[in-house]
């Protein structure tokens, strides 16, 4: 039996229609859902990501505000820009594009974002609330993965889940979200000893290590659920997906799996933040 393909592009398109309807209702009540994007420096990849996010806002009828700061920006400069957006009642979500130039204290700037506007799920407080099962906007990539899992009605409870990667906005929150769904979670990374044997025990694996095809096909257990959160210039992810139709029970393609859900979740969170004003 062929594996189920977890089509993030299709789900994101469906979600956009729902978001459009919600945005129209908010507009009729005088509320314009607005996402502010902050881009520091001129990294080409970051410029592309921010442009995609702004274009998606436009597609669903939301407004986006672009804050572009020079490469020489200091931590204090960036904190000042964030505080202005925190104070602006017409801004419902704030995105600080990662990475920022090396002279900036990125963590300090992330944590300066108002928790109510942390639609990208980057603050320590947001992570803590999410981990404890309290209200918070989860980091967009892992939150998008959870939405995929729920949409395709995959049962996670009791599964042995392995997350390969430990970044603060992907690997760590992913592990907590799976734990909250009653999976038994192991976190591995590029320095884990005997990583192959650990992955071979996984009923569900999430590749989030940032290395092309790091997880080999032969490491993957028959009928495992395979989630690949990576994307590289080689047009591949963090997992070798070449035989997934025959090995896995369900998997995310690259591209078209996790990627579209990341931006869609950001837009969804921003709409939800604006909606709180009328609830």
Structure in words:
This protein is α/β, with parallel strands linked by helices. The chain folds into 2 domains: 31-120, Rossmann fold, CATH 3.40.50; 140-259, 3-Layer(aba) Sandwich (Rossmann fold), CATH 3.40.50. The chain has helices at residues 8-28, 44-59, 75-87, 106-111, 124-131, 140-151, 171-180, 195-199, 244-247, 258-275; strands spanning 4-5, 34-40, 63-69, 93-96, 160-164, 184-188, 204-207, 225-228, 250-251. The strands form 2 sheets. The protein has a 6-stranded parallel β-sheet with strand order 1-9-8-7-5-6. Strands 3-2-4 form a 3-stranded parallel β-sheet, with helices on both faces. Helix 1 (8-28) runs parallel beside helix 10 (258-275). The protein is globular, with a radius of gyration of 19 Å. The mean pLDDT is 96.
**Helix fraction bin:** 40-55%
Classification by helices and strands: alpha/beta
Q: How are the strands of the biggest sheet laid out side by side?
A: 1-9-8-7-5-6
Q: Strand count, sense and closure of the main sheet?
A: 6 strands, parallel
**β content, as a range?**
5-15%
CATH class of the largest domain: Alpha Beta
